[in-house]
Structures are given as C-alpha cells and as structure tokens.
From TrEMBL:
It comes from the Bacteria. GO terms for cellular component: cytoplasm. It comes from Pseudomonas guariconensis. CDD domains: HP_PGM_like. This is Phosphohistidine phosphatase SixA. SUPFAM superfamilies: Phosphoglycerate mutase-like (SSF53254). GO terms for molecular function: protein histidine phosphatase activity.
C-alpha cells in the first residue's frame, strides 16, 4: 500500500473563518510542483479535507493528473482531526494507492504516527509538502517514509 500525504498550498492569511481561506497564486504554483511528483503513480483516490484551501489543492492535483475518479471530501481530514480516526478510516477504505490532502498539525502528526508509531516525531511538512509512505497496512509504526518533498 502507498499513501501520499499532501499539505495544502500557501493560503491567504485571513478569511471569515479558517475553513474559508483560499490558495494564493504562489500556493497554486506550489501545488502544481508537488502534483508533478505524482505523475505516473497509480492513484485510486484523492481524499481531501472540506476546507477551501484543501479542496482547491485537491482539484489542482486531480486536474494535473487527469484522474477520472472525483475527489472525495471527508470530515475526518481537518487540521485538528484525530490521527487514530484518520488511520482507521484509511484502513477501511481498502485502497492500495491513495492521496490525502489536509493541513497541519494533522499531516505532520499522521506521517510521524504511520512511520514511528507515536506522535512525538511529527514530519516537517510545509505548504504543499508531499510525503510518500509505503507499507502492508496503514497502521501506526508499520509504514516506511519513502520520501518527503518540499515544493518551496
């Protein structure tokens, strides 16, 4: 199984609510650089947070890769979602190749948990950073971080 975790691109500093913050032009460029790393990968699904900046990020990746499967929006990928719940949901999806699009602190903690089995070493994902994990199951401590790419 391969799981890619993508933090949304750079977003506006303010909006009416955190969930409404939109990508900046620079953020869109960052996302497209990260999407290029996914070209040729056998993605079965893109699963994204309902927040606007994550939806925009997922849509950019979806379009860049020309995927047929629409982006799936789920409530369990918001910034403060429970990492254990995310891992459980990921396991229930039954997919072999999936991209998750979300936010800090969730993305860093999730990558750290999948790699190390605890939340004490979160991965340093800046905007549009992409982590690639591989393992037999999406279980805490049982996946290997294959790469961590920063869009700059």
């Amino acid at each position: 199984m391969k799981v890619w975790v993508l933090r949304h691109g750079e977003a506006e500093p303010r909006a009416n609510t955190d969930a409404e913050r939109r990508l900046t032009n620079h953020g869109r460029e960052q996302v497209l650089r990260s999407a290029a790393r996914l070209l040729g990968q056998p993605l079965q699904a893109i699963i994204a947070s309902p927040y606007v900046r994550a939806q925009q990020t997922a849509a950019l990746v979806h379009d860049a890769l020309g995927l047929d499967e629409p982006v799936r929006t789920v409530p369990w990928l918001t910034p403060d979602s429970d990492v254990g719940q995310v891992i459980g949901e990921l396991d229930q999806l039954g997919l072999e190749h999936v991209l998750l699009v979300s936010h800090q602190p969730l993305v860093g903690t999730l990558v750290g948990m999948l790699e190390h089995g605890h939340g004490q070493q979160p991965a340093p994902l800046s905007t549009a950073s992409l982590a690639e994990l591989e393992g037999d199951w999406p279980l805490a401590g049982l996946m290997t971080l294959q790469g961590l790419y920063h869009a700059g």
